Write a sequence for this structure.
């Protein structure tokens, strides 16, 4: 008969975790934060609000992650690759905070979440004309190194990705 072994402590109930995070934010010198129940997890910098889904099986992990964004003061990004770096930093910070309460986050969960951003980044940088990978320019548009097509991509973090050719410059 297999032995049931817990690899990490059970997740802390959100009604206990949120007061801990609020106290941690205050002790860290952050401006007051709000925590609001929602259908999805996200950090909203202008309102200083962490939104969370209390019904998600991984709510503790994702709440720590979003709190990581708050603690780091994430408010936007200029280049797509910066978003991936911010996501990794938020996971790292959230995990470090959670460790103070003996909470651990599964590395596979983190990598799976980061993979969605890596996939998003790759899809945005793929040329709509020849499918080669392009480079993001300082104005946020992309240019293909193979066929020199120039395109703009929508934000598409929560909707379907669209790429619109700005200028098609075939050699």
């Amino acid at each position: 008969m297999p032995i049931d072994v817990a690899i990490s402590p059970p997740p802390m109930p959100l009604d206990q975790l949120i007061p801990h995070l609020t106290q941690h934010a205050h002790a860290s010198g952050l401006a007051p934060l709000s925590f609001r129940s929602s259908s999805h997890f996200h950090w909203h910098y202008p309102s200083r609000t962490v939104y969370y889904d209390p019904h998600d099986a991984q709510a503790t992990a994702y709440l720590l992650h979003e709190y990581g964004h708050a603690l780091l003061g994430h408010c936007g990004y200029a280049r797509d690759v910066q978003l991936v770096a911010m996501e990794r930093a938020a996971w790292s910070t959230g995990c470090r905070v959670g460790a103070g309460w003996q909470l651990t986050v599964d590395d596979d969960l983190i990598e799976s979440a980061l993979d969605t951003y890596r996939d998003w980044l790759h899809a945005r940088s793929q040329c709509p004309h020849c499918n080669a990978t392009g480079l993001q320019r300082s104005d946020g548009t992309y240019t293909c190194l193979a066929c020199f097509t120039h395109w703009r991509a929508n934000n598409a973090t929560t909707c379907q990705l669209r790429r619109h050719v700005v200028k098609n410059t075939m050699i």
